[in-house]
Design brief:
Blueprint (H helix, E strand, L loop, with lengths): L1 H32 L4 H20 L11 H13 L16 H9 L6 H29 L3 H4 L10 E2 L2 E5 L8 H21 L4 H20 L3 H16 L3 H21 L1 H8 L8 H16 L9 H4 L1 H7 L12 H31 L5 H21 L8 H18 L9
Helix pairs in contact: 1-2, 1-5, 2-4, 3-15, 4-17, 5-7, 5-8, 5-17, 7-8, 7-9, 7-16, 7-17, 9-10, 9-16, 10-11, 12-14, 12-15, 15-16, 16-17
């Protein structure tokens, strides 16, 4: 009797170890493909999530509680339940679960969760260098690697707006904005760890070089909000270094911006077009259309429905608009699709996590403080992008941001808390 019981327990233990490894490797695959491929990042996350589910069925506690739980779950509940009589027009809400899955996978080994999180960040950075190096080729030659390999029917070679002599970097994605948004939040965390994370000199140099290369790729997308978002993120990171570092960063950003404005016509044209009513007429038409939808449906039209239900409004309000999807403003889109509840849930996501990182930064070690700085910088950068784009409606963006937030939350935990997490 006791022998059979012991044998059964050993079999369960073996299965759990196998599933733990599967979950961990699923997260590694997810991190590797986040800057490369939607299919790859989804497959890796699916492996991690299914492994967690199987572990829970074997009686293992897998959900690691964190500051991410409340804002993510509130966002999900509002999207799924409000308005109660509306259908859901998109399955993108499932991407919101990605940071919770990543945190729970890393929590399977409490004693090493921080080192595991650093490993995941290193994997992301290593694979992010691939589109970062490709960005230079795309900038000068407009090469679409997937098309050249026969994996994409039509080539993606977007010329830079107002600078048609060169092409915007897209990496392996379909549009340059997606690459910029995908890389921004993890880049902020990597830069924070490199600058404030008390790394050894060797790893510090490696991290700084990788961050510089990935940052250059974001620049070569020529996405204006990504530029402004990373500039704000740099100020956030500098604020964690004290007044002198902050002042030096402000001067450095001003000098770099002035030099680029003087010598790079594409940068100059893109910056000048930011406040140009003529150049942004399409966005004005989109906002007017969304305002008309909101007036007729104050409780919202349901998550993901703007590209469908909004078409008659585009025909009436802004028939010349070419891009007819969401509202080119994450918070405006939230209000149109879910009324006040969805807007508040979206604001809660940014505010709750921002306050949480500020609070956690007071009670942790240098690595944890650096992670808090990186998480806060990532939120700031993506908040700027959210003002002119729908960052919650692209898998590439949500997975990149989710991975960065999950790693920041794990790294922010004080070492002494790891065994009891």
């Amino acid at each position: 009797m006791s022998t059979s019981f012991i044998a059964a327990a050993e079999r369960v233990d073996t299965r759990q170890r196998i599933l733990e490894e599967a979950a961990r490797w699923g997260l590694y695959v997810h991190a590797a493909f986040v800057p490369l491929s939607i299919a790859g990042m989804q497959l890796g996350l699916a492996l991690a999530g299914l492994s967690l589910l199987a572990l829970s069925l074997l009686g293992r506690r897998v959900w690691l509680r964190s500051v991410l739980d409340l804002p993510v779950l509130v966002l999900l509940l509002v999207v799924l339940l409000w308005p109660w009589d509306a259908t859901i027009g998109s399955r993108l809400y499932r991407t919101f679960l990605s940071p919770l899955i990543a945190v729970s996978v890393l929590g399977l080994r409490p004693q090493t969760m921080r080192s595991d999180a650093l490993r995941v960040l290193a994997i992301w950075a290593g694979f992010a260098l691939i589109p970062s190096l490709l960005a230079w080729v795309q900038f000068f030659a407009g090469v679409d690697v997937l098309h050249e390999l026969g994996l994409r029917a039509k080539p993606v070679r977007p010329p830079i707006p107002l600078y048609s002599e060169r092409y915007a970097a897209t990496g392996f994605f379909k549009w340059y904005i997606r690459l910029a948004h995908n890389l921004s939040a993890p880049l902020c965390l990597l830069a924070a760890i490199a600058v404030h994370g008390a790394l050894s000199p060797r790893w510090r140099r490696i991290a700084l070089v990788a961050a510089a290369a990935i940052g250059a790729a974001v620049f070569l997308t020529f996405t204006r909000t990504a530029w402004y978002g990373l500039a704000l993120a740099a100020l956030v990171l500098a604020a964690f270094g004290g007044r002198r570092v902050f002042a030096t960063t402000v001067i450095g950003l001003a000098v770099a911006g002035a030099v680029l404005f003087a010598v790079q016509p594409g940068f100059r044209n893109r910056v000048l077009s930011t406040l140009s009513g003529e150049r942004n007429q399409d966005r004005i038409g989109i906002w007017q259309t969304c305002a008309a939808v909101a007036r007729d449906h104050p409780e919202g039209i349901g998550f993901g429905n703007m590209p469908i239900l909004g078409q008659p409004y585009f025909d009436q309000v802004a028939p010349e608009t070419v891009v007819r999807a969401w509202c080119h403003n994450t918070f405006f889109t939230a209000y149109v699709e879910g009324g006040i509840p969805y807007l508040l849930a979206t604001l809660l996501f940014w505010i709750w996590l921002g306050v949480a990182f500020l609070r956690m930064a007071r009670g942790t070690d240098p690595l944890g403080r650096a992670a808090c700085a990186g998480g806060l910088a990532g939120l700031a950068a993506m908040g700027v992008n959210a003002l002119a784009h729908d960052v919650l409606y692209a898998s590439e963006t949500v997975y990149g941001m989710g991975l960065a937030l999950a790693l920041a939350v794990i790294l922010a935990r004080p070492p002494e808390r790891e065994p009891s997490a």
